[in-house]
């Protein structure tokens, strides 16, 4: 049990360091690791989101302190993301884990490829169209719940591609993710029960310890190199789960 908790602490710490610096990847990294460890798809997603209630709160407050948050963007993203998250969690909790696992792994590979693509895509600065923000938040919430991750890769990459400032997008998606994660976690607890989620304690410890550093690292680390590394880890481990 001690070694298991240590494993979860390390996973939570590493995933949150990357997520805080990039505005994405805590969910996909944690879920991919848990799936490789033998956790079912529904429980892996549930554990990840219960953990993210704590890590996103800490990370979001850190980004707010460092003035990386666009509050207008948060107000547009949060409601749509919460609705999408509740729908996605309900669907996943009522599907056989053995049936859904290959699809979850395939989804994670797609997210890994998306992150890799975004790492080498030149930034196209143009006027932002606000009408697209709620649909992006809704899709991000649904996919995040079903895949155990995806809010950051889907929402952050899309908004940056549409012309939002990178640092504000990272801070805002991190802050908004708390509301989305809270909704998803409540849905999972209602459908699965808390007893299945005890192992999330290790993820919480590791993630909360790492959370304050993300807001600082976002200004200092080479983003492209990190994104390439994250995408390779996600693609490789998910592919191993499929084959």
UniProtKB/TrEMBL annotation:
Key words, A-Z: Cell membrane, Membrane, Transmembrane, Transmembrane helix
Kindly list the places in or outside the cell where this protein is found, as annotated in its UniProt entry. Answer: Cell membrane; Membrane
The annotated topology with respect to the bilayer is: Multi-pass membrane protein
Which InterPro entries does the entry link to? TM_pro_TauE-like, TSUP/Inactive_protease-like
Claim: Transcription is one of the keywords in the record: no
In the UniProt record, does the keyword Cell wall biogenesis/degradation occur? no
Pfam families in alphabetical order: TauE (PF01925)
What is a single cellular component term in the Gene Ontology annotation? plasma membrane
Q: Transmembrane segments in this chain: where?
A: 6-29, 73-93, 99-120, 175-194, 200-218, 225-242
Residues spanning the signal sequence: none
Output the PANTHER family linked to this UniProt entry.
MEMBRANE TRANSPORTER PROTEIN MJ0441-RELATED, MEMBRANE TRANSPORTER PROTEIN YTNM-RELATED
Regarding protein family, the annotation reads: Belongs to the 4-toluene sulfonate uptake permease (TSUP) (TC 2.A.102) family.
Full protein name: Probable membrane transporter protein
Q: Which organism is it from?
A: Rhizobium aethiopicum
